[in-house]
Input
Amino acid sequence: MSEEILRVEGLTKIFDDASGVVTAIDHVNLSVGKSEFVMIVGPSGCGKTTLINMIGGLTEPTEGRIILGGREVKGPGVDRGMVFQGYSLFPWLNVQKNVEFGLKMRGVSREERAKTAREYIDIVGLSGFENALPGTLSGGMKQRVAIARTLANSPEMLLMDEPFGALDAQTRVVMQELLSRISRETKTTILFITHDIDEAVLLGQRVYVMSRRPGRVKDVLDVDLPELRSHECLLMPEFLKVKRRIMDMLWEESQAAAVEVEEE
Output
């Protein structure tokens, strides 16, 4: 791992709702190096989204610490860019203005934000669509705009929560290859949550595998694949080896969860 940019120590989140006290995340430790692409995969309900929301400063931990760039995370900040499954674009603004929006809020000059937006629109492959409104774009194109808008603000880290989950299979692979290229070209540090094992292995340099609820780190796997990933990696022996290990771990968790339900 390169120089550490994110460290999570003993992170725990307990919710108290109508059904009682629920521990979503239980003493999770993880780290991400500068310019590293790290994946988190786990069973449904294991607290993946809760974890990334705490790192993003959207949810307060019950216990533990989150250190980003040597500073403890106490809330949202421009040092973290977040991309969700929903695109969250402004439908009345065209592509150019959507990408410029965060820069405008920060007081960046009109000339500079226009230049920066065009650069990132080009990076995500949408040159020529600057004046298009979101309603005229496909799902994959909308997600490209969302990624460009986030990167334009130069965050220290990109947090992604199932960003391709709503896309069809073919578009999803295209977006995975695009994100792999972008991360390599921009050297962006990325923490990416998914329930898709293929996606986790295809994109990640390391993969954190979560247990069933309460979510804990079950294992951390290194992925030895070419730096620039493509769909061709899906058939490589190294890919299949890591995929099999993750499948076995998640199957074990699913079986244990089913036994627990029967015993209740």
In short: The mean pLDDT is 92. The two ends are 42 Å apart (CA to CA).
